[in-house]
Amino acid sequence: MTAQYPALSAADIDLSDTEFWGWPLAERRAAFAVLRAAEHPPFFAEPETPFAEAGPGYYALVRHADVVEASRRPEVFSSGKGATSIPDLPAEFNEYFGSMINMDDPRHARLRRIVSRAFTPRMIKKFEGDVQLVAAAIVDDLLDRGPCDFVEHVAARLPLTIICQLMGIPDDRYDQVLRDTNIILSGMDPDFISEDPEQAVGQILTAGAELADLVTGLAAERAGRPGDDLVTALATANIDGEQLTSAELASFFILLVVAGNETTRNALSHSLMLLTDFPDQRELLMAGFDGRIGTAVEELVRYSSPVIFMRRTVTRDHRINGQDFHEGDKAVLYYWSANQDETVFADPARLDITRSPNPHVGFGAAGPHFCLGAHLARREVGVMLRELLTRVPDIRAAGPPDRLLSSFINGIKHLPCTFGG
Ligand code: HEM
Questions:
Q1: pLDDT above 70 covers what percent of the chain?
Q2: Which of 181, 256, 340, 421 is most buried, judging by how many CB atoms fall within 10 Å of its CB?
Q3: What's the Rg (C-alpha) of the chain?
Q4: Mean pLDDT of 328-354
Q5: pLDDT tens-digit profile of 217-234?
Q6: CB of 391 within 8 A of CB of 143?
Q7: Alpha-carbon torsion (139, 145, 150, 151), positive or negative
Q8: Rounded to whole angstroms, what are the CA distances from 40 to 34, 67, 76?
C-alpha cells in the first residue's frame, strides 16, 4: 500500500493539520510508515485551540516499541499532568472530563480499584448474557428493516444498550447518552459540533453537564432503592472507608459511557468494512468460527485501532529511540501507527484473522491505564459478528464509509450495508 504514494515525504505530513485526518486511510497509513522510518520521533507544533493558546508542541511516538516503552513507565510518562488530549484541559473541563484516565497513581489506582470491584464476577456474568440477547434483538430488527445504515442500526446500538444497561440508565435516556457522547468525542467534525470555537466549547460542556445531571439523579434514586447496576455499585463503593465524591462519580460515569460507546461502535463498523474488503478472511472465519473468532477479534481491533492516540507528559529526563525527553515535553502515543508497525506485524496492511502472536496496542499497551473495558469490548464484537455472519451470511458494506473528521477516534459516521439480494 505504501508504494501507492511514493512521493510522500516527512515534510508533507503535519499531524496537527485537520485536513490530514481526512486523508484516505491508505494514504494515512503510508504517511505513518514514513514517520516510523524517521530516525527519531517526529515533532509537531500545536495549533491554538478554542480553549487554550497554542501549546509547546509534541513528539509523536509512532513506533510500536516506543508506545510500549512509554506505557510501561508511567512515572516518566505521566497521564496526570495536563491531560491525555494534546492540549491541556482547562479547569472548567476537569469537572466533567478529569477522571482516572487523566490521573497518575496513587489517585488513579484508588479509582480503578473502586470500579474494578464494581465489575464483580456476578456483574460480568450478567453482562455476558445481556450482550447475547441484545445482539440477537438487533439482528432481528435488521432482518425486518433490510439494507440500511449499519452504524445507526447495528454498530451503535449494541455498545449503547449494553453500557446503559450496565449503568441502569432508563431506555428513554439512551438517545441523549448517544448524542452527548458523540458531541464529546466529535473531534473537529462539523456534523456533530459547531465550527465556531466558542460555541463548540459550550456544546462540549453542556453535553458533560447533561451526563453529570443524569448520574446525579440516578445515584440519588439508587440511594433509596439500590439496584443491580454499576451506578449503585459506584455510588456505594467503599474502599478503606473512602467513597467516591459526587464530582468523581460524575466524571467516572462520563468516562465510562464515552469510552463504552465511542470505541466498540467503530470496531464493529470497521469489522464489516474489513470483512467486505478481505473476503478470503471472512470465508476462513466462517469455516471455523468458534476456533478463529478469538484471534479474529484481536486482528480487527489491531487493524481498526478505534482510539488513535493518548498523550503523556514527561516528568524527568529520559531517552527513547534516540530522542532526549525533558520534563514538560508532550509525547503522543499513536496506537494506530504502532499497530501498523512493519517491524512487529508482517504485512500489516493485510487483515489476517489467524495472526498469532498479535501484540497489538489497540486497547493501549501494558501499563496502569490499559483499557478497563477490553474484556467487554471483545465480547461485544465477537457475539455481534457471530449473530450477524450466521444469520445474515451475505451482509456486506455497500459503499465507502462516511468517516469522522477526528485525530483521536478512527470513527465511521455512516456505512451503507446490503444483504438479501
Ligand atoms: C474496541 C473497543 C475499545 C477500544 C479500542 C478501547 C481503547 C482504549 C485505550 C487505547 C485506552 C487507553 C489505554 C492507555 O492509556 O494505556 C482505554 C482506556 C480505557 N477504556 Fe477502553 N477501549 C474500548 C472499549 C471500552 C469499553 C467498552 C469501556 C467501558 C466499559 C472502556 C473503558 C475504558 C476506561 C475506563 C479506560 C481508562 C482506564 C484507566 O485510565 O485506567 N473501553 N481504552
A1: 96
A2: 340
A3: 21
A4: 98
A5: 999 998 888 888 888 888
A6: yes
A7: negative
A8: 12, 13, 19
pTM exceeding 0.90: yes
* Exposed/middle/buried for residue 21 (C-beta within 10 Å: 0-12, 13-18, 19+): buried
- What pLDDT, on the 0 to 100 scale, is given for residue 2? 41
For residue 320, the cross-strand partners are 323
Of 167-171, 242-246, 346-350, which gets the smallest average pLDDT? 242-246
What is the DSSP secondary structure assignment for residue 88, as one 8-state letter? P
Backbone phi and psi for residue 84, each to the nearest 5 degrees, phi listed first: -100, 0
pLDDT of residue 335: 98
Is any atom of ligand 1 closer than 6 Å to the C-beta of 43? no
Given this model, what pLDDT does residue 186 score? 86
Beta bridge partners of residue 52, listed in sequence order: 49
Task: Please check the confidence at residue 239 and state whether its pLDDT lies above 70.
Answer: no
**372 CB under 6 A from ligand 1?**
yes
Is it the case that residue 331 has pLDDT exceeding 70?
yes
**371, 406, 410, best to mutate for ligand 1 pocket (most atoms within 8 Å of CB):** 371
Q: How far is CA 305 from CA 61, 112, 173, 180, in A?
A: 15, 23, 29, 22
Cβ contact 266:304 at 8 Å: yes
Measured from the Cα of 163, ligand 1's closest atom is 30
Section 34-40 average pLDDT: 95
- Whether 338 and 62 have beta carbons less than 8 Å apart is answered as yes
Give the separation between CA 368 and CA 73, rounded to whole angstroms: 9
**Predicted pLDDT of residue 1:** 42
Compute the distance from residue 280 Cα to the ligand 1 centre, in Å.
30
Which segments of 225-373 does DSSP mark as H helices, in order?
A: 230-236, 246-262, 264-277, 279-287, 289-304, 335-338
Q: Is 292 in the pocket of ligand 1 (CB under 6 A)?
A: no
For residue 394, pLDDT over 90 is answered with yes
Compute the distance from residue 101 Cα to the ligand 1 centre, in Å: 9
- Cα 181 to ligand 1 centre (Å): 14
CA dist., res. 234 & res. 257, Å (int): 14
